[in-house]
Amino acid sequence: MGGHHHHQHQHKHPSKGRIGSVCDDFPPDFPSETNTTSYICVDSNGCCNFTTVQAAVDAVPNLSMERTIIWINSGIYFEKVTVPRTKPNITFQGQGFASTAIAFNDTANSSHGTFFSGSVQVFSTNFIAKNISFMNLAPIPSPGDIGAQAVAIKVSGDQAAFWGCGFFGAQDTLHDDKGRHYFKDCYIQGSIDFIFGNARSFYENCQLISMANPVSPGVKGINGAVTAHGRASKDDNTGFVFFKCTVGGNGRVWLGRAWRPFSRVIFAFTTMTDIIAPEGWNDFNDITRDQTVFYGEYNCSGGGANMSMRASYVQRLNDTQASPFLNVSFIEADQWLQPYS
């Protein structure tokens, strides 16, 4: 990467002091190619291969079997990014979820539907993201607003992993659409159904933060929901598992609501503040779904984890019932999940 270090220009005006190049602090330890990995670099100041993330994705060869690591320097990249099916094995490597972000501001209204509103849309297999944030900057809607859904990322490819990532939005932040996915040490914020879709996903040690408006003591209303899982048939092996996570923030919210009749969500060893409504869950106002949803809680703690007033269809899982959901075998990780390094 030597060509990307710009040397000092001769100073014609010494009185103005040293004028450094914007690229002088470009990381000196940029990783080098290996037989199995190629690197592309993105920097908004023009200090390396590309200035936009989409241009870097476009440059990856179609159907490449080797991993391409797209190294993204600090900054906010205001663009809409699509990783198509034809580009498997891509990694987005940021510099920290508070330092590197891809952001856009589409809504269901502006993009012809929630499913197209994502700032980032991933359709390929074996996608990895590390230490980067995905943001939708559209305004926070009020409950019931029409067309205000605003997805930060849609993940529609199989075998995706997110390590130390941030997901920022309000309604429908993270469209965890389909495939087997792993989220570790992530920060996920939103207001209504902010983790939704019909994927089979394991969330480990993640922070789930409600952005719903604070609710005054004594007020009964619900103004948010953490999940809306879309399992439509008992034959779908899909569901969201939250393992050793934390749920907090503002509002009075449900842990989940039954977007589809066989919605399946499990919270295990998770700490919940008292923003969780006592009934915990919602059947999308369709009592026939009470017979078909699978909502389980296991060994959770905190002010929101009291199960004494939970809805009738919520299951307090015993050890045997919980065991399929307590590790990454739920997403068959032994077949595909690479260690972080």
From TrEMBL:
Name of the featured protein: Pectinesterase
Catalysis: reaction(s): [(1->4)-alpha-D-galacturonosyl methyl ester](n) + n H2O = [(1->4)-alpha-D-galacturonosyl](n) + n methanol + n H(+)
Metabolic or biological pathway: Glycan metabolism; pectin degradation; 2-dehydro-3-deoxy-D-gluconate from pectin: step 1/5
Cellular localisation: Secreted, Cell wall
Protein's organism: Carpinus fangiana
Predominant location: secreted
EC number, as in UniProt: 3.1.1.11
Active site residues of this protein: D193
Record's function text: Acts in the modification of cell walls via demethylesterification of cell wall pectin.
Organism lineage: Eukaryota, Viridiplantae, Streptophyta, Embryophyta, Tracheophyta
